[in-house]
Amino acid sequence: MCETMSPASYLQPLEALGGESIRNLHVHVTDCYRVWLGVRGLGRTIPKLKPESIIDVQEMRALFAATDLLVHEFLHRGQITKIARILGTIPPKMNLSKIK
Fold first, then answer.
1. Closest CA to 56 of 27, 26, 31, 23
2. Which of 13, 61, 67, 89 could form a disulfide with 84 if both were Cys (CB 3.0 to 4.6 A apart)?
3. pLDDT score for 96
4. pTM
5. Rounded CA separation 100/95 (Å)
6. What are the DSSP calls for 2-64, one per residue?
7. Counting beta carbons within 10 angstroms of the beta carbon of residue 81, is it exposed (0 to 12), middle (13 to 18) or buried (19 or more)?
């Protein structure tokens, strides 16, 4: 749907939403995943995003694609190995930063 909007509409802040735009809300969603899973879950250093750094829907799609990779890594590596350790199984050493 956002790809059918004009770029100006995608970036338009709305007072009814506290001055936020659709782009800003998208950045907030990806930042939640990046911080909770990447920083807190996987111990990475990931800078907070500034909405102004994303200028259009195509850049936002790329950001969501990178975020999807982080979610996949967390669910199939970080979370499972953490549970295995709690259950007493020591998983093999792996470099999570190399997983793509």
1. 23
2. 89
3. 52
4. 0.73
5. 11
6. GGGS-HHHHH--BGGGTTB-HHHHHHHHHHHHIIIIIIIIT----PPP-GGG--SHHHHHHHH
7. middle
